[in-house]
Amino acid sequence: EVQLVESGGGLVQPGGSLRLSCVVSGFTFSSYEMNWVRQAPGKGLEWVSYISSGGNTIYYAGSVKGRFTISRDNAKNSLYLQMNSLRAEDTAVYYCARTHSSLYFEYWGQGSLVIVSS
Amino acid sequence: DIQMTQSPSTLSASVGDRVTITCRASQSTNSRLAWYQQKPGKAPKLLIYKASSLESGVPSRFSGSGSGTEFTLTISSLQPDDFATYYCQQYYSYWTFGQGTKVEIK
Fold it and tell me: Residue A29: helix, strand or coil by DSSP?
């Protein structure tokens, strides 16, 4: 069974940092591209970042470029999102998602809530 | 960036109704269009990919159609489990979601 489990969310002050993790099981992690998607409270879905299976191709949404860093450790079946210089507008549930051949998102984690507030 | 616009934003319907949701792209997506269902407090679930291909395990009452810049998601006979929010997504150029359509009980 494919499983994706996010962790690392919480309350952080504006300007602070947080690192999200997504641990996967049930499939060969090193063979799949991955994405982070977020959803602000009561709002729609927003794509955040993409990483290729080997980690050598990375993309970011303009709203997080220069502040967030996506990475992965294929030996640990883990995906990460380092979030720096956090702003109130980064408050959201963050989902990791397995990507089918750089196309659509076929499996999602349950999400990790990040709240940026003083 | 490709912008995605869904209509309507909210739809009130009854069990058994035929429901159609429209998604328009600001430029052609070459049928690289997916639909997701999301229930409150849950992660999105893939329903349709490549505009009209049904994901494995998704009931056949769901169907997708369209090409170029205009796409539709149809639920042929609405079931109690289908009351949720639906999102379209283009994956032709990076990834962009529509704003969502909430299907609520009439």
Answer: helix
CA atoms within 13 A on the CB side of B83: 9
Distance from CA of B32 to the nearest CA of A (A): 8
Average per-residue pLDDT for chain A = 97
Residue B54 exposed, middle or buried by CB count within 10 Å (0-12, 13-18, 19+): middle
A13-22 as b/e: b if 16+ CB within 10 A:
eeeeebebbb
Q: What pLDDT, in 10s, does the model give residues A35-89?
A: 999 999 999 999 999 999 999 999 999 999 999 999 999 999 999 999 999 999 9
- Average pLDDT over chain B, rounded to an integer: 97
Window 40-99 of B: residues touching A by CB (8 A cutoff) are: 42-46, 49, 55, 87, 89, 91, 94-99
Phi–psi pair at B43, nearest 5 degrees: -75, 155
